[in-house]
UniProtKB/TrEMBL annotation, chain A:
Documented EC number(s): 1.3.-.-
Obligatory cofactor(s): FMN
Organism (species): Aquipuribacter hungaricus
Any one GO molecular-function label of the UniProt entry: dihydroorotate dehydrogenase (NAD+) activity
Entry protein name: Dihydroorotate dehydrogenase
UniProtKB/TrEMBL annotation, chain B:
Organism: Aquipuribacter hungaricus
Span of domain FAD-binding FR-type: 9-112
Pfam families found in the cross-reference section: DHODB_Fe-S_bind
Entry keywords, A to Z: 2Fe-2S, Electron transport, FAD, Flavoprotein, Iron, Iron-sulfur, Metal-binding, Transport
Cofactors, names only: [2Fe-2S] cluster
The keyword Transferase belongs to this UniProt entry's keyword annotation: no
PANTHER family found in the cross-reference section: DIHYDROOROTATE DEHYDROGENASE B (NAD(+)), ELECTRON TRANSFER SUBUNIT (PTHR43513), DIHYDROOROTATE DEHYDROGENASE B (NAD(+)), ELECTRON TRANSFER SUBUNIT-RELATED (PTHR43513:SF3)
Protein's name in the database: Dihydroorotate dehydrogenase electron transfer subunit
Transmembrane segments: none
Amino acid sequence: MSAPAAASVGGATAPDPAAAVDMSVRLTAPAGTVDLAAGVLTASGCAAAGRELDPYLDLTTLGGVVTKTIMRGARSGRPTPRMAETPSGMLNSIGLQGPGIAHFLAHDLPWVAERGARAVVSVAGEDVEEFVDIARTLRAATSDDGPLGRPGTDGGVLAAVEVNISCPNVANRGLVFACDPGSAAEVVAAVRAATDPRVPVLAKLSPDVTDIVAIARSVLAAGADGLVMVNTLLGVAIDVDRGAPVLSRVTGGLSGPAIRPVAVRCVWQVTAAMRAGLLPTVPVVGVGGVRTGRDAAELVLAGASAVQVGTVTFGDPGAPARVRDELAAVVRHHGLGSLAGLVGRAHDAVRDGGHP
Amino acid sequence: MSAPAGVLPAARPAQVTAPVVVADRLGGYAHLVIADPVLAQALPGQFVAVAVGDRQSSMLLRRAFSVHRADPAAGTLEVVVAAHGAGTAWIAGRRAGDELDVVGPLGTRFVLPPAGGRVVLVGGGYGSAPFAWTAQAAVAAGVRVDAVVGAGDADRLCDVDGVRAVVGAAGGQVLVTTDDGSAGEPGRVTDALARLLEEPVPTTVAACGPMAMLAAVARTAAAAQERTGAPVDVQVAVEEAMACGIGICMTCVLPVRGADGATRMVRACTDGPVIDAAAVRWDCVGAHGASVPADAVGAPEGGAA
Ligand SMILES: Cc1cc2nc3c(=O)[nH]c(=O)nc-3n(C[C@H](O)[C@H](O)[C@H](O)COP(=O)(O)OP(=O)(O)OC[C@H]3O[C@@H](n4cnc5c(N)ncnc54)[C@H](O)[C@@H]3O)c2cc1C
Ligand SMILES: Cc1cc2nc3c(=O)[nH]c(=O)nc-3n(C[C@H](O)[C@H](O)[C@H](O)COP(=O)(O)O)c2cc1C
Ligand code: FES
């Protein structure tokens, strides 16, 4: 590795946007494929439904807007404080505040469609029925002759469904779906069955598990077309002056650059299992602590076909577009013409004898 | 300027890297003048969100500051900064010639009454930062202005001279209060406000300061309205902990009653910071955050206190 050149990539030097790098990514569904313009997307809960970011970047140049997780009804979320800044990160306990699926379909998704951008719609439920209900409602609203374009294809706003299984399963003693291979598989199978077969279904996994490969195996067996890794890690911050927890509900999800090594590890482990033939091979979307193109490249080199940019967008609303350009520069630095060429390369380096 | 500030359209916000052209003090606060043509279009009541440190900073979140003054002709925006925690200490330490990464102008603005109307400005601590400028806009629009400037102690009073220069020159009253009596009259801003509201004329109150003060201002205004029979419209610029300032994170919410009578947890950064005090569910707003009223839209069954 030539250190001096690498040091200029994704850092202070602006990448040359004219130099062509194919940044697109293809997702596959049981009855179709979806080509995203770029393998860089927003992350759920860190972009609302896209509209608020419009002044700061061109949403049509991203792979898509991953929406805040939508549930069936309106949800008020948790009391405040819901946020605590931590070193290179933050804790949040929003509690999935949102207007519900009907409002989302009437107001938010049409805006994304009108803007010419694409949406990956994140869905969740407190039980399997709620997941199914939302998936069905979404399918009905994005039918072929509807105003939102044909689902799954280049014409339509709906690029994929992301199943957020990081919420507690009320039917199962509040155990988080993503922490139990059985519940995780049940939800993913149900959403897959209720979703248009041309639309990929992605399962978003929690890093707060002992064996992420086991969870990945169960959701892939249940029909997930891709994996998104990772959601936030559970944490607590205490206000030392007050001698009390900062967050109203004590615990919150940790995100931001502080968690990047965990995200890279999860992508690495699951990709290694795929390469070893222990899991079916599907696209992995890396998320966790991406601040620069070099950060995104870590996830890609570990096996991610695409990345999402989350918390960093709060401080730098143009970040998703910047990360895309910086990531293109890393691809070019490696002498490659496409993002796809970079995927999983760090595994090859290990196989070929590790570090020079 | 003939139209009241409140009727001007808000500028589309932008993320800019802008130079600090003046860094000095305003009483106990740091005062920064930032040069940028987009930020300079801010209106009274709006805020900006300032990044801390450089791209490698471990403090990822922006800090919000109400706009002290914006001058579209000069292309400048000014903020007043209290060095409170690590982030504001860094921002307060900027010098002329340094650059800041700023997003703005953000949020809603004060809506002044039409010409011939009356506004009373109430600022607590650095909450009075926008009021010399707001008063200027009001005077220019033919609105009568009085003001209360208060703080815990003399050191935390903000821009009393600036407010006096504008309000006093226009014939209005400026009352100064401190909790400990170290300057002005001893007591709370609401004591002074109650006196200014004895006059039975329709009044707009524009208030900015800590949440507890805003709640007390709302109560004081409601009591005055009952006593005199003259309507008092209270607009408060709320200060909720904000992670993004642009409406994407949902951290800054507080319970507010909508036009339909239903309470929702609304975003202070995009639906505010200036909101109608009568719509805020003050019963659910405390010193360290807000609870979700049991009757709020989408509240968990049985409420989430
Ligand atoms: C609309 C608005 C206008 C403001 N105007 C001014 C102003 O004119 N002058 C001024 O000095 N300060 C102002 N503040 C408060 C200032 O933004 C906070 O003091 C600051 O965010 C706390 O940051 P810190 O680095 O000092 O503290 P830390 O404790 O290090 O802050 C950590 C994090 O918590 C958040 N946070 C904690 N407390 C608050 C709070 N009370 N309000 C908002 N965010 C908080 C911060 O955004 C930050 O992300 C304003 C805040 C808001 C929301
Ligand atoms: C304020 C906030 C809200 C979030 N809301 C959701 C959500 O609704 N659904 C979801 O799947 N993930 C949610 N996440 C997790 C992010 O999508 C992402 O997985 C995580 O933050 C790690 O990425 P990051 O470090 O780039 O932020 C949220 C994160 C934050 C910080
Ligand atoms: S601060 Fe992020 S939504 Fe208001």
